Amino acid sequence: MKLIIGGAFQGKKEYAKQQFSLQEDQMRDGKEADFEELFRVPCLYHFHEWIQKGLKLGWDFDGITERLLQENPELILISNELGYGVVPMEAFDRTYRETTGRICTKIAAESQMVIRVVCGMGMVIKNA
After folding, report:
1. Which residue in 5, 51, 71, 86 has the fewest CB atoms around it within 10 Å?
2. What is the pLDDT of residues 100-119, one digit of tens each?
3. According to the UniProt entry, what is the EC number of this protein (predicted)?
4. Looking at residues 70-96, what average pLDDT do you find?
5. Measured between alpha carbons, how far is 103 from 119 in angstroms, rounded to an integer?
């Protein structure tokens, strides 16, 4: 697995397309993807929004990292970093931010590569 993180509008998706020779039809928007699509697509962007949707729909995220490693080990995930700035006032927003951070932390630990993109430039954080 590969995890690409960074702030909003920093060029993460375009970086992934160039770096890993991805075509648009190989990429799925997390805002639109259902739970099972995560285990089939080559690349999912807006992973943080996939998690947000899942929280609203009551998806069970337990064991997600292990399942990804078994069923879709070549997956490229692209997610916004959400843990910076003001702590949200709404309880759901705090839960969403914390859940996204915890899931991404587990995925990063198991990923072969983690890249942070800022201003369209990737910085490799991990390359196992």
Report:
1. 86
2. 999 999 999 999 999 999 99
3. 2.7.1.156, 2.7.7.62
4. 93
5. 24
Q: How far is CA 4 from the centre of its chain?
A: 7
Per the document, the length of the chain is 128
Half-sphere exposure of 100 (CA within 13 A, CB side): 26
Contact 13, 78 (CB under 8 A): yes
H/E stretch holding 48 reads helix 47-57
Nearest C-alpha neighbor of 78 from the set 105, 116, 25: 116
DSSP state letter for 39:
G
- Amino acid identity of 103? I
The pair of three-digit structure tokens given for residue 45, joined into one six-digit string: 């962007």
pTM of the model: 0.95
Query: For all residues of the chain together, what is the average pLDDT?
Result: 96
Q: Which amino acid is at 7?
A: G
| pLDDT of residue 85 exceeding 90 | no
The answer as to CATH 3.40.50.300 being correct for domain 2-127 is yes
